[in-house]
Amino acid sequence: DAGAGDEDDNVIVPGTAPGFEPFQMNVDGELVGFDIDLLEAVVAETDYELGDWEELEFDSLQPALENGNIDVIAAAMTITEERQESIAFSEPYYSADQSVLVQTGGDVQAEELEDLEGLEVGAQSGTTGEGIVDEELGDAVDYTSYDNYVLAVEELERGTLDAIVIDEPVGDSFAGDRDVEVAFTFETGEEYGFAIRQGEEEIQDALSEGIEAVEESGEYDEITQEWFGE
Ligand code: GLN
Predict the structure, then answer these.
(1) 103: Cβ below 6 Å to ligand 1?
(2) Ligand 1 within 6 A of CB of 128
(3) Which domain holds residue 41?
(4) Both ends of the chain: CA-CA distance in Å?
């Protein structure tokens, strides 16, 4: 019986966390980026419709998904075993490693993670970058957690923070338009997926098939070209 209720069932509300260029940013009040375009293209391949985007802090996305305020996360979110204990993911749509950012022309000389020992290091709350600092460096660094990487990058530019651990493509982007530079990159082999609630197999399969479809149609390459120019 195709009532309005059935139509509502087909609407999935997306959530993201701007400030993570070029995947999701708010430019002059408009939400744009690779993940925004990609999810819109992917959902267009399915029987679902996208609702209005919710913009949250990265750390708030998973709780918002679990409590039903949003239905899908598109936020360059790495598929991890820990996250898969409570949420599920589509097939991967992007691969990334991590970088360490420092102030351009500043005093910090670093070529590997151990070189950050004794320094003030930051990352965005709830990210894999934060997890790496915690696991690899622990108490050896003076760690600060930021709600958003943009705030951490601003501290780096001011010289009030020594280094940031951040996804490599995003580090490259900040290095391109702010007074920060990539000190070094290290391999983590992370893969981004669209996150959904566990047990939502229909949405999960639709998103995974949608990703495959936009890869085959050439749309994925067009979106990559637009945001990465490659
Ligand atoms: N890929 C990283 C993670 O999943 C960072 C994502 C982000 O900050 N938007 O934790």
Answers:
(1) no
(2) yes
(3) 4-93+193-228
(4) 47
From first to last of its 230 residues, what are the pLDDT tens digits of the chain?
A: 444 445 567 999 999 999 999 999 999 999 999 999 999 999 999 999 999 999 999 999 999 999 999 999 999 999 999 999 999 999 999 999 999 999 999 999 999 999 999 999 999 999 999 999 999 999 999 999 999 999 999 999 999 999 999 999 999 999 999 999 999 999 999 999 999 999 999 999 999 999 999 999 999 999 999 999 96
- Of 21, 35, 125, 127, the residue with max ligand 1 atoms within 8 A of its CB, to mutate for a pocket test, comes to 127
7, burial (CB in 10 Å: exposed 0-12, middle 13-18, buried 19+):
exposed
* Token pair of 23 as six digits: 């995947």
Would the CB of 12 count as within 6 Å of ligand 1? no
Nearest alpha carbon, ligand 1 atom 8: 127
Q: Which of 86, 90, 49, 95 is nearest to 73 (CA)?
A: 90
Judgement on whether residues 128 and 181 belong to the same structural domain of the protein? yes
Same domain assignment for residues 16 and 86: yes
ipTM > 0.90, yes or no: yes
Q: Ligand 1 within 6 A of 78 CB?
A: yes
> Cα of 2 to ligand 1 centre, how many Å?
39
Report d(CA 67, CA 118) in Å as an integer.
39
The CA 50 to ligand 1 mean position distance, Å, reads 22
Q: How many structural domains are present in the chain? A: 2
